[in-house]
Design a protein that fits this description.
Layout (H helix, E strand, L loop, with lengths): L17 H17 L3 H12 L4 H8 L5 H40 L18 H14 L4 E2 L5 E3 H4 L22 E2 L5 E2 L6 E3 L4 H10 L4 E10 L11 E11 L4 H16 L5 E8 L2 E10 L23 E10 L1 H6 L8 E8 H9 L12 H4 L7
Parallel strand pairs: 1-6
Antiparallel strand pairs: 2-5, 3-4, 6-7, 7-11, 8-9, 9-10, 10-11
Helix pairs in contact: 1-2, 1-4, 2-4
Length: 379
């Protein structure tokens, strides 16, 4: 049995020579100093302090030395590894400080800048109001019905009992659309039989033709008339009309429906009244007035409290209404002996002027965001 090798000199092991250990140490220190950022330092750390780094491999050689040689070799390698670890920690601290300082500059936020540099959007108040009115009737069980804006003259006039020589059928009141005759020749506007609808009532006629009573629909939409654009008129505006056809409907049902609508839109203390009038498509017909929402009628006969909104009359005209003319029912294929109905309609622009004190209709069509933005994004 051979005796232990007590004469084994660690200096003879190439990886444990003092000058070799110093070289490994210096290379590690140089790599750490050359690292320009934390990512480069991480690569240098793996190369010089990882499990396969030169100093780690040298440290493994110590285990093969005799006992009397391990202490000296361990001291040399341990000192070198300690210097490398301290240099790594110091360089990492420096690079982290540089990164933090750079982030503070590059990602700085000026808290004095306005927070709303992108202005909030806004829906057009006509759209919002038209949907709100529709919702009032939908909550009562009505359906929303729509129809084409380019309409056949029959639906726009004939089905609604407009006689052939009615003034509304003239070109000075209605936009006629040019078309093509059967033989391919161009037709003038008043010969084409096609118009831009002057009211949303054609939707009522189409609904009666398409379905069997009972019918309860509300018809919002855009309409056209040959008016000049001014403070109170526009050639393109919006209407909303209501049609109810069922067995046993009377003017009392119409009055109750109008009262509910006005109270839902203007307040629970609002009232309505009906004044006799004439419309081709209703008989009897009436103009509906509502109590002035500003003075509540208190300006009538009171010179000390005049009301500019209603002219101190106490009432504001809102729209036309009445029982559906039996001729309209017949034209749409409904038996007037069995069914009756009521209808009414009014302009959305006019109601918007009432509700929000808008004094110039041109503000509604010019597209100025300063007009629409105060109304917000109500859905």
């Amino acid at each position: 049995m051979s005796a232990p090798n007590k004469s084994y000199d660690p200096v003879e092991v190439e990886a444990l020579k003092p000058e070799e250990i110093e070289r490994m140490r210096d290379e590690a220190l140089a790599a750490f100093a050359a690292a320009g950022d934390l990512d480069a330092l991480a690569h240098a750390k793996t190369a010089h302090t990882g499990g396969t780094s030169p100093l780690a491999l040298a440290n493994r050689e110590i285990g093969a030395l005799p006992p009397q040689a391990k202490a000296a070799a361990g001291k040399i390698v341990g000192q070198a590894r300690g210097i490398v670890s301290k240099a790594l920690a110091a360089r990492q601290t420096e690079l982290e400080a540089e990164r933090d300082a750079r982030v503070l500059v590059e990602e700085a936020v000026d808290v004095t800048l306005p927070y709303d540099r992108v202005p909030a959007g806004a829906r057009h108040p006509l759209t919002t109001l038209m949907e709100r009115v529709s919702d009032v009737f939908v909550s009562m069980g009505y359906e929303v019905a729509e129809g084409p804006e380019v309409e056949a003259e029959w639906f726009n006039f004939d089905a609604l009992n407009f006689v052939p020589d009615h003034p509304a059928r003239q070109m000075q009141d209605t936009f006629f659309v040019e078309g093509t005759s059967v033989d391919g020749k161009a037709t003038t506007g008043d010969e084409s039989g096609v118009v831009l609808r002057t009211h949303t009532s054609p939707v009522q006629a189409r609904t009666l033709i398409d379905r069997e009573p009972p019918v309860y629909v509300v018809c919002p939409g855009r309409v056209y008339r040959t008016d000049e654009l001014d403070a109170t008129h526009t050639p393109v505006f919006h209407q909303i009309e209501l049609l109810a056809v069922d067995e046993g409907l009377t003017m009392a049902d119409l009055k109750g429906t109008l009262d509910h609508m006005v109270q839902a839109l203007f307040g629970p203390d609002m009232k309505t009244r009906l004044r006799p009038n004439f419309f081709p498509f209703t008989e009897p017909s009436a103009e509906m007035d509502m109590l002035c929402y500003v003075c509540r009628g208190e300006s009538v006969g009171n010179p000390d409290r005049p009301c500019r909104t209603c002219g101190s009359e106490g009432w504001i005209e809102l729209g036309g209404c009445g029982m559906v003319n039996p001729k309209v029912l017949v034209a749409c294929g409904v038996d007037p002996e069995k069914y009756s109905g009521f209808a009414f309609g009014f302009g959305i622009e006019r109601m918007l002027m009432f509700r929000h004190n808008v004094d110039d209709m041109r503000n509604m069509v010019e597209g100025d965001v300063r007009f629409t933005r105060p109304f917000g994004m109500e859905i």
